[in-house]
């Protein structure tokens, strides 16, 4: 069972549909027992960093998420869900994130030849081998929608990058934490393969 955390941040149904299309059992919930009992957990989301952290704290999900991570359950953050795993964002000064990973969430700088927010398909570069990218070719295209981007402190956790005005750390993996700035659920066959790789984590040993 894969639990998708519902904290009123949108973009949940498309993730659910993609997983169901793959034949996975999925539950959308903010119930702590359901989340802690799941085989895998996903934190999707679009919207403001500050509003999202307010909701996560309102529903007391911050402690649940940390417990999920501590019990080594595979955990995937998508888009805003990636950003929330870090300590803070330029989008919402003074608001603390979950602080599970170290790095900065920065505003994509203005550029006369590029639009911000960054909306559309960009190719991925795969600097470090990552479990989510098994069977994914270098320069595969995925779909982005964001105005803020990750610059991780430790480049070793960065498994995919893309270039849009700046070099964007597009996916990270550390222990049982996985996260993508792009939307795998909207990224055609490449995205489905990434979600399949996440769903299959641990099954090879079982």
Provide a count of the helices: 6
Order of helices and strands: EHEHEHHEHEEEEEEEH
Dominant shape? globular
- Quickly give the CATH architecture: 3-Layer(aba) Sandwich
Helix content: 25-40%
Percentage of residues in DSSP E strands: 25-35%
Derived structural class: alpha/beta
CATH superfamily: Class I glutamine amidotransferase (GATase) domain
Describe this structure in words.
The chain has 206 residues and is α/β, with parallel strands linked by helices. The protein has one domain (2-199): 3-Layer(aba) Sandwich (Rossmann fold). The chain is 26% helix and 28% strand. It is built from 6 helices and 11 strands. It has helices spanning 12-21, 32-37, 49-58, 61-70, 80-84, 188-199, and strands spanning 2-5, 26-29, 40-43, 75-78, 103-107, 118-123, 141-146, 148-152, 158-164, 166-174, 177-180. The strands form 3 sheets. Strands 2-1-3-4-11-10-9 form a 7-stranded mixed β-sheet. The mean pLDDT is 95.
Descriptors:
26% helix, two-stranded antiparallel ribbon, 206 residues, alpha/beta, 11 strands
Sum this structure up briefly.
With 206 residues, the chain is α/β, with parallel strands linked by helices. Helix content is 26%, strand content 28%.
């Amino acid at each position: 069972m894969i639990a998708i955390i519902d904290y009123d941040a949108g973009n949940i149904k498309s993730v659910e549909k993609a997983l169901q299309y793959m034949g996975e059992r999925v539950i959308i919930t903010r119930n702590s027992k359901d989340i802690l009992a799941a085989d895998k957990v996903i934190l999707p989301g679009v919207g403001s960093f500050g509003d999202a952290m307010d909701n996560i704290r309102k529903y007391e999900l911050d402690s649940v998420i940390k417990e999920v991570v501590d019990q080594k359950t595979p955990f995937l953050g998508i888009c805003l869900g990636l950003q929330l795993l870090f300590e803070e964002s330029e989008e919402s000064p003074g608001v603390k994130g979950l602080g599970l990973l170290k790095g900065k969430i920065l505003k994509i700088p203005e550029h006369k030849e590029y639009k911000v927010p960054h909306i559309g398909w960009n190719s991925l570069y795969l600097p470090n081998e990552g479990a989510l990218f098994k069977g994914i070719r270098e320069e595969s295209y995925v779909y982005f929608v964001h105005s803020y981007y990750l610059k991780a402190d430790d480049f070793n956790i960065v498994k995919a990058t893309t270039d849009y005005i700046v070099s964007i750390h597009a996916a990270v993996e550390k222990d049982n934490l996985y996260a993508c700035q792009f939307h795998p659920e909207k990224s055609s066959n490449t995205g489905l393969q990434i979600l399949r790789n996440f769903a299959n984590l641990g099954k090879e040993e079982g």
